[in-house]
Amino acid sequence: MLSRVAPWLASRNGTGLGVRVLGSADTLALRELASEDVVANVFILSHLDSTGTAAPTSGGASIFGVFDDTTLLGACWAGANLVPVQLDPGLAGYVANAAHQTGRRYASIFGPAVTVLALYSRFEQLGHSAHEVRSQQPLLTISGKPTTSPNPSLTFGRMEDFDRILPACAAMFEEEVGYSPFLGGQEFYSRRVAGLIRQGHSLVHIDATGTVVFKAELGAVTPDVTQVQGVWMNPELRGRGQSAGYMAAVVNLSRTFAPVTSLYVNDYNAKARATYERVGFEQVGTFATVLF
């Protein structure tokens, strides 16, 4: 594993700073760091809840930590994507250098906008070009009851509906990022969708004809916060004013896991932003996503 071969990936250069891959002994420090902002860091906190460790995963994902001597200053998940954790933009270059040295390719960088853009700036210098940069994505939360009536048809997805839910998820993915999640094979994405259903993190309305009308997922879940992802309304049923009712239902169902519901949205998606505002979401920060 990388942590055994090259535990320190950036020289100190007289600054006292260094980067290394985190291990199990760093778990508490990482959790304390991420808990400084439980909304922005719900992804990594959810990972720690499910695995119990900051050590590299069996699938090859790891977490870089930036240290001043023994003090963890910031971190960054490095799996299929890069996800910074309380990482000061001024330290982003250390992580970018370490991530580049692994030789692996990343599908995206996402998280707090200033840090994500700082990471990408260094990645550009290292020869990595983005397919798209979404620099302004309002990070929204709601902690009370939704301000519009929920649609009672939304419910938790069931495995017996997997063959209906999977195509809807794939359609949403392709619409959002511009390519099919099945490129290179269907197995990985299928396992991801099935896992969300089994965890009770898939929310869907399938009508009497077997058509998926609306769906969303709870992509990250902790006792404090859920993060909604994959919001999708069947294109044939758009423009009828139904989205707010479904999103209100998403909030109510997600509150069975945590008191705060969060999501981030592209700033140019005026219709979605209006829907979220109608439901009662408020902006608490700004994310960015870099797609490679």
Would you kindly provide a written description of the structure presented here, covering whatever features stand out?
By secondary structure, this protein is α+β, with helices and mostly antiparallel strands. It has two domains: 2-129, Aminopeptidase (3-Layer(aba) Sandwich), CATH 3.40.630; 142-286, Gcn5-related N-acetyltransferase (GNAT) (Aminopeptidase, 3-Layer(aba) Sandwich), CATH 3.40.630.30. 33% of the residues lie in helices and 28% in strands. It has nine helices and twelve strands. The protein has a twelve-stranded mixed β-sheet with strand order 1-2-3-4-5-12-6-11-10-9-8-7, with helices on both faces. Strand 3 (71-78) and strand 4 (81-85) form a beta hairpin. It is globular.
Query: What is the quaternary state of this protein?
Result: single chain
Query: Major β-sheet, in short?
Result: 12 strands, mixed
For the largest sheet, list the strands in their spatial order: 1-2-3-4-5-12-6-11-10-9-8-7
The domain count comes to 2
Strand segment count: 12
Provide a short characterization of the protein structure.
The protein is built from nine helices and twelve strands.
Keywords:
292 residues; alpha+beta; Aminopeptidase; twelve-stranded mixed sheet; 33% helix; disordered N terminus
List the topology elements:
Layout: H1 2-5, E1 17-21, H2 27-34, H3 42-51, E2 62-68, E3 71-78, E4 81-85, H4 92-101, E5 108-112, H5 113-125, E6 132-142, E7 155-156, H6 162-177, H7 187-199, E8 202-206, E9 212-221, E10 225-233, H8 243-254, E11 260-264, H9 270-279, E12 282-291
Helix pairs in contact: 4-5, 6-7, 8-9
